[in-house]
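Exam revision sheet. Question 4 asks you to relate a sequence to its structure. Input first:
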Amino acid sequence: MFHCDLIDSEINGNDCIIVCDVADDMLKENVIDGKFTVKKDYKEICKKCKYHDYEE
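Answer key, structure tokens:
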């Protein structure tokens, strides 16, 4: 589980990857739940997250 600053809650790794791909414009915004896009600058918030380019 990863803490997501976009929703101030924990999300699983798969959701994190998909949200990151949307923030990087690799996927369209409509593939993620609207709760991730509520904050106006959600892409920048995501890109600044320590998990954005996380590799295990």
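Marking note for examiners. The chain has a mean pLDDT of 96.
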